[in-house]
Amino acid sequence: MESAIKTVEKYGTPLFIFDERVLAERIKSLRKRLPEEVDLCYAVKANTFVTACAAKYVERLEICSPGEYDICKKYGIGNRQTVISGVNKTEEYIKRVIADTVSNPAEGIFTAESVRQADMLEKAAGEAGKNLNVLLRLSSGNQFGMDEAELKAIVCRNREKYPHLCIKGIQYFSGTQKHSLKKDAREIAYVNEFMDRLYEETGFVCEELEYGTGFPVFYFQGEAFDEDSFLKDFSELIRLSSLKRKTVLEIGRSIAAGCGSYASRVVDLKTVKGQNYAILDGGINQLVYYGQTMAMKHPYYKRFPEKKDGGEENWNLCGSLCTVNDILVKQLPIKKLEAGDIFIFKNTGAYSATEGIALFLSRQLPRVVRIKESGEAELVREAFETSVLNS
Ligand SMILES: Cc1ncc(COP(=O)(O)O)c(C=O)c1O
Predict the structure, then answer these.
(1) 120 in a structural domain
(2) Cα angle: 51, vertex 387, 292; to 5 degrees
């Protein structure tokens, strides 16, 4: 945090800081606590800025849009390491990815989220004269993936209707912030039972399961979570799958959250009808804490300068948007808050820079500073005027 404040002093606020040293350690630490035989896949959507670093430590990257694909290209990441996922894959996008591949079957993997997508992949592969590695996405009861019957129909018609698709197995993701091991147990048992059933009914062998774990991140003070024992129990569950077939864990939030800090400065202070309000130069367009209901919970943060003397007062920390919803934290007890003070919010490495309602109010996108593994700070995005996009 001491070095974070130096970076903030240099680059100003609001500011995202993503520390790749923390990211690298996090991935290594997850790997140590998960079964040796499972592979890790980083879901790029959580934080695109740290993709190149993550790529050094995980086997695979999950890409969900042409934009994320372009980011991987920019970082020089080869298709071998990618799984092209997502509900909307255009013909042009599929062709572009195939054209970037040299081997046959083409390097990397595509997911098929529907029969139409399987048809599109087959057509593009046939035209390019290449085979494609494919995971069929099994739905968990929403718009993502297919139901069992459709998935089974594709498997059954693999040879005659989809000769260019090398179907490797199943992708399954049922949601983020899952902290119920019972839910994980049910899901892992279900997917494995389904794959066994698929074999019994069609003879198709699922060589691989790509499972979105939705591992939780505990963002708020007072929440207790024993991650070691959680991962130990999860490891027992996933062995059910990993002993039978290649198992890849697809993770975004839990990999990236800890590497990020978001700094925002107090620009105004007022008391209205007995309530203290601090206006910050950031806002909910840039800071997203999953599970933050009505700003009632207190995230981990540090205030600079630190003030030890004096009594505490409760402050509502508000952002700069013209909406009453733009409250970052309600009733935060703080000593001697003053204009110019800086808050550095922790655990903002996942889904803040990439998920915020960035264009609202035509506010600037903040600068992004990446702390490289060498410790050197690098400005990777200048502040960006969104007014040009909103007019
Ligand atoms: C298919 C898929 N896999 C993985 C993830 C990453 O989830 P999390 O960030 O909870 O790990 C997502 C998130 O939306 C997803 O849609």
Answers:
(1) yes
(2) 55
Q: What is the pLDDT averaged over residues 163-171?
A: 98
CB count within 10 Å of CB 273 equals 4
Residue 41 alpha carbon, nearest atom of ligand 1: 4
Whether the CB of 138 sits within 6 Å of ligand 1: no
* Ligand 1 center to 273 CA (angstroms): 43
* Ligand 1 close to Cβ of residue 176 (< 6 A): yes
Q: How open is the CA angle 257-258-262, to the nearest 5 degrees?
A: 80
Q: Please state, in angstroms and rounded to a whole number, the distance separating the CA atoms of residues 367 and 385.
A: 11
355's tokens: 């998920």
pLDDT surpasses 90 at 355:
no
* 25 and 52, same domain (yes or no): yes
Q: Is 252 in the pocket of ligand 1 (CB under 6 A)?
A: yes
CATH number for the domain that contains residue 321: 2.40.37.10
Taking the centre of ligand 1 as the mean of its atom positions, its distance from the CA of residue 251, in whole angstroms, is: 6
